Amino acid sequence: MRRLTKYLRPYRLQCILGPAAKLIEAVFELIVPLVMARIIDVGIAAGDRGYVVRMSLVLVLLGFTGLCCALFCQYSAARASQGFGTTLRRELYHHINTLSHAEIDRIGSSSMVNRIVNDVNQLQTAVAMLIRLVIRAPFLVIGATVMAVGIDLKLSLIFLAAAPIIAFILYFIMSRCVPYYRTIQKKLDRISLVTSENLQGVRVIRAFSRQEAECRRFDAANEDHREVSMRVGRVNALLNPLTFVVVNLAIVAIIWAGGLRVQSGALTQGQIVALVNYMNQILLALVVVANLVVIFTRAAASAARVNEVLELAPSVTDRAGAAPAAGAAGTPRVEFDGVDFAYSSGENALSGVSFTAAPGETVGVIGGTGSGKSTLVSLIPRFYDVKSGSVRVNGVDVRDWPSAALRAQVGVVPQQAVLFSGTLRDNLKWGAPQADDAALWAALETAQAADFVKKLPGGLDASILQGGQNLSGGQRQRLTIARALAGRPDILILDDSASALDFATDAALRRALRRDVRGATVFLVSQRVNTVRGADKIVVLDDGAVAGVGTHEELFRSCEAYREICLSQLTGEEAERA
Amino acid sequence: MKKRTDGQGAKTMRRILSLLAPQRAHLAAAVLAALANVGLSLATPVLIGRAIDHILGPGAVDFDGMLPVLAALVGAVLASALFGWLMTLCTNTVTYRAVRDLRRALFGKISTLPLAAIDGAARGDFMSRMTNDVDQVSNGLLQGFSQLFTGVVTILGTLIFMFSLDPFIALVVVVLTPLSLFVASFIAGRIHAMFTRQAEVQGRLTGFAAEMVASQKVVKAFGYEQRAEARFDEINKELYHYGVRAQFYSALTNPCTRFVNGVVYAAVGLTGALSVISGRLSVGGLSGFLSYANQYTKPFNEISGVVAEFQAALASAARVFRVLDEASEPPEDAQAKVIRDCRGMVELEHVDFSYRPDAPLIQDLNVRAAPGQHIALVGPTGCGKTTIINLLMRFYDVDSGLVRVDGSDVRGLTRDSLRGCYGMVLQDTWLFSGTVRENIAYGRPDAPEEEIVAAAKAAHAHSFIKRLPQGYDTPVAENGGNLSQGQRQLLCIARIMLTDPPMLILDEATSSIDTRTEVKIQRAFDEMMAGRTSFVVAHRLSTIRRADCILVMKAGRIVEKGTHEELLSQNGFYAQLYNSQFAPSEE
């Protein structure tokens, strides 16, 4: 919890003045019976109608001032709690943006989103309640206790005896509930996850007619959620009845012991009545406290989940003094030097990879499924850090680059053609916020996408649905290529980005790339020999290690793995012809 | 305008109530428990008063008389607590079951919505309805029950006591207190609008965050973090704007009603005091009255607080119901047949289809696949190949024309049995968050281990699975993040190998798999598909060349049709496509 209080700091004023205003209202509320007593004692006794009317107006005035105080407090609570939530959401999202994929995968993206929205909601409620009730309830409890002590010290010992019992009950219930609430949020994550998977995989699910099985999977998660909610509800349900019983038993004790004191002449009947009334007042305040306790236990569970995200340290961070490098003439644009890499768990995905790529060079990367092609190129924009060895861009280790500057140099076309909801123009401007329409059209032209974009209703303003669902696979791919080109990167990475393109388009794309991105170093990751064979240099990967580097002709002659790939794709004659 | 929202609120309310209907028994038990709880807790002050009556003064305390009263008090307190506990248990049961049913209905809707609705929906917003909005409904119901029940019963109880004391002043109270309810309902209208907006913006925020977090890699690749944060901030600020207002307006009700009640209290004091002066009421009567007036107004305060919470619940419920009200896929004909022993004859006749009425896509399409034929679909991207698959699988229905399988219109067949005839592998791989084994056995969850391994071997996935940290029991991360794209495709292929379907649809199914493996997989497919109809969308020559019939598509029409050799000799569009592959790329 303590970690999160710093987000409340800007609302210090509201956090102090709000409860203070509430306190004033509470005091006014206590004055009301006194004024009523004056009406009875003075007004009625003297038969003074004018006094009665005046005092009634005072009552209304007190009520009105109380109203103003209460409104001020509520407004403070609204400002502070929503402001706190807004800041926290922003911080959370900002922090998630600094994390690398490894960390996000560990928690899962649907859980991340739940933490940003649902868990922060719980915390927000807790802050609002804190401001509204935190002063009032304890004030009433302490005030009543003090009054009781003033009446009779010995009898007030009963008050003091009841206090630890109630404290124990509160503690007991809180400690029992916190783990349950954490489980509830986890079950909610599961509900989100199954829902999200079903929205995404709707075609496959229907193809296998597995809707009912999916419903059962969801039901299991849903039922789990209900069951834990019920269980925590059962514990919580004890809170009010238990405090009710404790307070009333204390009242019984006061009456009995009070009877003894009255018998001996130490107290009057009226004082007993007053003590009982104070006890009742405490009970009412405790009911409020109990509600607060429930809200806070829930919030504590959410706070832990939010903190878990905030405490995740990003594995890829900028070094102090990192500066972009221009690269002297003659330095290779990209250089892999004895690179070993492993994902957090498991064996090396890459071992001993070394090669260089000069400006303007096209590098083909080819190899079997799972041989590490995508891993290799994802080290260039430093999505992950190497285990040993180094990756250098313009002669400088990527770890010594500011990551923003590094990534601005690199245009990536990911394997999965991901587009975002918004207009087509918004999507293209991802890598080039300043680009004008002419530049965007040029990028589209190179990516072989200009023709179909012209036909779309709205052209650049055509709207894209989430995930680009309203476009065909090939259209999506070409747009992701255009998106990368629009940033005019020095290094362009096409990670198997032509898989959904037909031959004609693929060939035209490669020709256009040759023509339009002359100075850039282009990485072509592909399964197809045809895609890479025109490259200046081909890196052949086999199970994470480099099996050969060279041109098509060289490799075809000298590299067994490469020849095998070629022969599986081309007829002998075609391979020769190359 | 206001009228309309009121009407909708009432409608939403009725639907929430109908959601509670199955929990009638628990609901009734909750009401009874509330009655007992409040009745007994109203009795405690009376008993306390009687006990104190036995304490008269020094030497005049009647302990013998007090004992049974105190015993009764303890009994009443324990019983009241017990009933209070039972009431909460019952309302918990009712709420959590209702909420579960609501979530289940919402989820069930996914499986009946037409694909067009799902493709067009923002997933994050849907998820927000599933989690945040349903949570809000749950909170509203829980609070509503616990405070409404006790509140109403307390009001009725004290009313009876007051009328027995003095009907005239009681009448003043009765006439004036609804003022507070009027104030509450006036504010409630404003709150409802704010809560609706808040829930909408929250949905948008969730949608945005979900989209961005799920594609974090692209965000990073383009250094989009700051701009993403800027957009997030924008929505977040809007959420703050409505959040503060919703929170504040909803917090208005309680102080406002308390103020109104304070005025009522003053009015009672005034009329009461004047009545005493004119001799119509005793001072003791007045003090009793005032304390009842106080007790009477308290539940009104609580109820008005609930009104606010309930408005939030209503706004959220309306969002949930809006999804439930979306049109489902047309229900299956009662006479829909189950297709058995599918031979694999597929015909498309004069099919017209488009996703949007203003952009015609497929026009007058005719395809005939004889049993056992291998059909390849070829053409530039966006020409409608994937759309044909959508129609074959009946993910979408044709606008006009017919699709027939084994001679019967697919609209006369059950969807499940039709889809069961095809094994489908798409380029967009879909894995769910289970183990590798569960993902392979997706189409046949009861498949024995040997068959699962055999399918994985046929799909050439076995060797990489073996190398995973926990082999077949390795959990697949959300969105398959811990596997490469090609590995994911291999798993999807293994899935199909295991189901052994009578027909096959492959939409770029091997696009991310290296060609050596692909050739081997192709061989496995060939064995499996010998004599079975298959539709293949592919860009690789090797796959296409073997097809019995190549359908060359262009802009939603079939422009050429025939075998590889026939089409090449025609020297038309196909030949042009084919040759372009070998056009020297060095130029």
TrEMBL record, chain A:
GO molecular function: ABC-type oligopeptide transporter activity; ATP binding; ATP hydrolysis activity
Main location: membrane
Keyword ATP-binding among UniProt keywords: yes
This protein's UniProt keywords: ATP-binding, Cell membrane, Membrane, Nucleotide-binding, Transmembrane, Transmembrane helix, Transport
CDD domains per the UniProt record, alphabetical: ABC_6TM_Tm287_like (cd18548)
Residues of the ABC transmembrane type-1 domain: 16-298
Protein name in the entry: ABC transporter ATP-binding protein
Species of origin: Anaerofilum hominis
UniProtKB/TrEMBL annotation, chain B:
SMART domains reported in the protein's UniProt record: AAA (SM00382)
InterPro entries: AAA+_ATPase (IPR003593), ABC1_TM_dom (IPR011527), ABC1_TM_sf (IPR036640), ABC_transporter-like_ATP-bd (IPR003439), ABC_transporter-like_CS (IPR017871), P-loop_NTPase (IPR027417), Type_1_exporter (IPR039421)
SUPFAM superfamilies (UniProt xref): ABC transporter transmembrane region, P-loop containing nucleoside triphosphate hydrolases
Domain ABC transporter stretches: 346-580
Transmembrane segment boundaries: 67-94, 140-162, 168-188
Record-annotated ABC transmembrane type-1 domain positions: 28-312
UniProt GO molecular function: ABC-type oligopeptide transporter activity; ATP binding; ATP hydrolysis activity
Cellular component, GO, one term: plasma membrane
Keyword annotations from UniProtKB, A to Z: ATP-binding, Membrane, Nucleotide-binding, Transmembrane, Transmembrane helix, Transport
Subcellular compartments: Cell membrane
Membrane topology: Multi-pass membrane protein
Pfam family, one: ABC_membrane
Keyword Calcium (UniProt): no
Name the UniProt record assigns to this protein: ABC transporter ATP-binding protein
Species name: Anaerofilum hominis
